[in-house]
Design a protein that fits this description.
10 strands; 2 domains; binds flavin mononucleotide; alpha/beta; two-stranded antiparallel ribbon; about 325 residues
Length: about 325
């Protein structure tokens, strides 16, 4: 695929391969790993504007920055323009020159609150939100879905409202809320967004391989792609798309990830919270089901590392311990 830098307001990304905001996954450690494989831009997971204003400790914990992040981007959600503007002006968000507004979250507790994807049904309010966020002085990007229900797309209109209200870039997740994360992305709808606006459009949804990324770019004419679950499974996809030489020793990668987290959190927190990411790293490995049963009982990183070592190095005849 064609690699290029993307202008976002007055900033310029390293390249057009973005790592998605992913609640529970895109923390500083995962972002650091994606950056080390060449990701051009990364985002925090979505943080609540109300949580920020009330200085909620759990919310602030999501704002830890990755050491290699040169252009930090925070993703925010909310539905009150004034609260969102004030949150963006808060001290907690001072290190983030770019803020992405979540217009896609399908989860009931967000949607039923009129936030995330619920805003796809209220263009005037969405426009006021973008304008208020732009008034904070930050550079604003928007992440949208193509609509709420199948057959009722809002992509082009919504993208236009975002642009007219001052957004500097739009990422389109090519699925409706109804689809959650299932099925093929709708290339035609992403293409419509690209044709409707002049600001850069990044395409997202279902990219798990170089071929998927290539197809997404060719079909939609987008300026770049955003990898989500594909990067959780194979963060080295960034290098392979960049045609950068890479070699991945999964065991070393997993150890490195654990060590990054240990620099910040206590041992038990790391062991417990890392298990779900570990499942992504091990997807498709032989013997993983039995391994998962074992690791979900472990609560310290020493035992976790021992299990990982025996999983990869245990039996030389069973194809484990291999380099990708
Ligand atoms: C576990 C999980 C958490 C997610 N959290 C967020 C989030 O915080 N903000 C957001 O905009 N999208 C979030 N998403 C959506 C992803 O960013 C992405 O749009 C979606 O997974 C589609 O891309 P994919 O098919 O390549 O995974 C999340 C998705 C998953 C699976």
């Amino acid at each position: 695929m064609r690699i290029k830098r993307i202008p976002i307001g007055r900033y310029l990304t390293e390249n057009n391969l973005f790592f998605a905001p992913l609640a529970g996954f895109s923390d500083f450690a995962m972002r650091e790993i994606c950056l080390s494989y060449g990701a051009g831009l990364t985002f925090t997971e979505m943080v609540s504007c109300k949580g920020l204003l009330f200085r909620n400790a759990n919310t602030e914990a999501l704002l830890v920055r990755a050491p290699s992040e040169t252009l930090p981007c925070v993703q925010i959600f909310g539905n009150d323009p004034e609260i969102m503007r004030r949150a963006l002006e808060s001290e907690a968000l001072a290190p983030f020159p770019i803020a992405d507004i979540n217009f896609g979250c399908p989860m009931p507790k967000i949607y039923n609150n009129g936030e995330g994807s619920a805003l796809l049904a209220d263009l005037p309010l969405a426009g006021r939100i973008v304008s208020a966020c732009v008034a904070s002085g930050k550079t604003i990007t928007c992440k949208i879905r193509i609509g709420l229900t199948e057959g009722n797309p809002v992509t082009a209109d919504f993208a236009k409202v975002c642009e007219d209200s001052g957004a500097s870039l739009i990422t389109v997740h090519g699925r409706t809320r109804e689809r959650i994360y299932a099925g093929e992305p709708d290339y035609r709808e992403i293409e419509k967004a690209k044709k409707a606006v002049k600001i850069p459009v990044i395409a997202n949804g279902g990219i798990f391989s170089e071929e998927d990324a290539e197809r997404m770019m060719n079909e939609t004419g987008a300026d770049g792609v955003m990898l989500a679950r594909g990067a959780l499974e194979k963060p080295w996809l960034f290098s392979s798309l960049l045609k950068k030489p890479y070699s991945v020793d999964k065991k070393s990668l997993i150890y490195r990830h654990i060590d990054l987290l240990k620099g910040r959190y206590d041992d038990r927190t790391v062991a417990v919270s890392f298990r779900k990411q570990l499942c992504y790293y091990l997807k498709g490995e032989p013997g993983v089901t039995r391994f998962k049963e074992k690791i979900f009982r472990l609560t310290d990183t020493e035992s976790l590392k021992e299990e990982i070592a025996s999983f990869f190095d245990g039996d030389p005849g069973d194809e484990k311990g291999r380099t990708v």
